[in-house]
Amino acid sequence: MKIALAQIDMRLGDIEGICSRIESQALLAREQDARLLCVPAPLFGGTAPGMLAESAGYVHDLLAALSKLAGHCGRLGITALVPAVVSHEDAPILELFMLKKGRVVPVRTLAALRRERASEELWRPVVFDVDGVRLAVTFDAQRDLEELPQGVDVLVYFQMAPFNLADEATAAVAAVADGHYREQVARRGLWFACMAPVGGFDDAVFTGGSFVMDDSGRVVAAAPCFEEALLVQEISRGVTVPCLEGHELPHYERNEWLWEALRLGLADAVDALGSSRIALVLAGDLPSSLAAALAVDALGPRNVIGLFIARQRIVTPSQEAAEAVRAQRVRDLASHLGIRLVERIEPDATLVLDRDAAAQLGNSSAFDRLFLADLAREEGAVPVSAITKTHVALAPTMIEGALSGEVAPFGDVYLTALEFLARSRNRAGEVVPRELVSLKAVAMSMSEIVAHAVWSERTEPSYAGKMAELLAGLEPSQIDGVLEAHVDRGLSLDEIPLATSEPEACALLLMLVRRGEPARRALPMAFAVSACSFEVRAWPRGLAWSDLGRKGAEQLTLAAVAQAEIERAESRGAEMNARMRSELMSLISGLLGISPEQLEELGTEEGQRRLGEGIARFESHMQEVFGQMAEDGGYDASDDQTGQIPPHASGMRGFPFFSIN
């Protein structure tokens, strides 16, 4: 059997357009004798459709379009596997629709209903036959490769996890060279087909790179990364087929993959907004210059418009010289990239706002965004922001709210990472000025972020001064290191390495992250490429708590508190058992005439030993008495009317208690 993987990039939720594209892919696959066609998982609803999955109208339109598509695939004699997020029993599930012989079969829901009746696990991988091949489908390859039943010929993996810098496996075939998937596939001895999506779907970005492995863990076919393709491969169990050598496989390079993912995500985001142009502010710094280069790579220079805003608040010769250098740098960049540059002059803030010019720090961004919104509206362009994750973490108010349709491609990338990203991009052709690809340029941008964070506390001069003093002592890499540890990895203050030497500065950074939560809700859309984006990490807006460390106290955890409660209950149970045993022994001692001293002695090891010996002698005496009674013919109290003990029972006189009872 031949399997086809359609690595296609379509606008999210364009149901008719997507189905039309799948029809054309099915025709191409059938021309190559493929019998099974697979399409990417996030095509219809993305990775997080939210309430869309519960919309009756959306589900109706989806099923109607799939029914029409099933008829087309049936006429071609091809089976199609189409994943989509829908609602089942008021909960969203990732359904797998099998289009076969003109029918639409919801495979996972159907299998779950059957397993529910049989009291089996509901959502384990579904297994079925296609053209004589035993097929299993999974959305979590790492887990299900170990749990598949025997007899499966091919496992089809629909990748649902978007590109993540912290997880190389999300780069699909680019991760194989570093050992991903190979060992598990070879150990299970089955074929493995990875259907990797490509393109941007809201804030999620996929790199493509679908591939097929044989049952010995060798890649026998692979689709290109970051572009559309139709991959067709014949599945031949037990047959050795040609494979791709190690040097033929793409190798994961962090900065290169990040750049291409952001480029692809930006191009798709602009297209989804119904535009083909980008407008952005060029400030002569590293973030805006790199954002302009990314925009040119995504859409071409003719579709990018740069905006330069000359500053008015210049009072010293050094400021005048710095402004002249900044203006020339922006003009040189625009000329080098081949983009159109629009220049504006910043108005005098004292004529616009009722306040002194001396208190205007932080207002420049407001005018920049006003000019950018006007330019974007005039040109029908999508406004692009050059903010980084460091801006988002420490100074979100620098943005003053998102413009309509605004995109921030670096919104989930830390400032210090831009230097390495720019170096990687410049190796393919210098686009960012060399003087901006340096630690000095990063430090200048970081100082602006810190200055804005301090300016936000201008009503408390002493507190603002202390903030400036603490943050000025940190290098840019240290600031971003604290943010990455806290935001991306979820570490508390005491777990951050720098907190040992700079506890107050670390606590201040964490407090700034917490305080920026309300402003972050109004920031532009960013592509989630880190282990934890701020959209995922969202905390309550009005939160008053901030992590100030344990100050030497032992770490409290929920598990420890629960365990202490269990131990307390067990201890109370043991105390209660001891008290009940004591009361019972006291009662017995009163009945048998045993003194407290004798009772205490019985509780010792020596007393227990003597008691055991006494019981053994008692049992021996009882056996002798019962034996003697048996020899004398026994005694029946019902035949005795006198109440006297007969002579043959005199052997029991040594045990008066038992003799009268």
TrEMBL record:
Give GO terms for biological process.
Answer: purine nucleotide metabolic process
- What Gene3D superfamilies does its record include? Carbon-nitrogen hydrolase (3.60.110.10), HUPs (3.40.50.620)
InterPro entries xrefs: C-N_Hydrolase_sf, NAD/GMP_synthase, Rossmann-like_a/b/a_fold
Per its UniProt record, what Pfam families does this chain match? NAD_synthase
Q: Which part of the chain is the NAD/GMP synthase domain? A: 259-438
Protein name in UniProt: NAD/GMP synthase domain-containing protein
From what organism does this protein derive?
Enorma phocaeensis
